[in-house]
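A brief tutorial aside. Many learners find it easier to grasp structure tokens once they have seen a single protein encoded end to end. The record that follows does exactly this for Response regulator. Read the sequence first, then the structure, and try to relate runs of similar tokens to stretches of the chain.
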Amino acid sequence: MADDHPVVILGVSNMFENESDIHLLSAAVTISELFETLRQVPCDILITDYSFEGDSEPDGMHMLERVRRMYPALKIVLLTAHDDIVVVRQAMRLGVLGFISKSSGEFSALPMVVRSVMRGERYLDPTTSKAMLEYMLENNPGAQLLSAVKLSVREVEVLRLFVSGMTVTEIALQTKRSLKTISTQKKKAMIKLGARNDIELINAFGRMGGTHRQPDPGSDPT
């Protein structure tokens, strides 16, 4: 992990203490320490800030490009207060898999994010994901956004059936998958789309070009 605020590193370290499958191997508070650490301590995932105030070495995109060039297999999660949509888009283009805004209050989701990124999945915190969708709709309203938010094929299938009017239980029966699996896929899609409830989920999918239905107040809430 790399962050110029030691208190953030301490908070993340404490969060991982009870996670048996996640180990914080080392931490750096400057960019030079970051690259020295990466050289000495091989790791799977780098959790890093975007800006290192007062650092003598270039931060931001220059730092991320350098990491990608030197360690192309390293998976990166940005944990930063710099949540401007332009920054998020450029970071994702560089291959950053996870993005959590420090203002989003999603710190508690970090262990889940690490596991998702380890599987090669992308993650945007709900606030940033919603802002990204709104930006793309404003600038390219006719675009199909499924690939942009990295919904899996099965997540798209679950959303399509749910938006068509089926309950989670009915989707599980039709697809011959467990209720727990369908619920999990629906919840992951909600996170990626920045939807906080079924109505926002249906509306988001409708804006992306999927079929739209009016939400049924009595539908299966799972």
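Self-check: The chain has two domains: 6-124, 145-207. If you spotted this yourself, you are ready for the next section.
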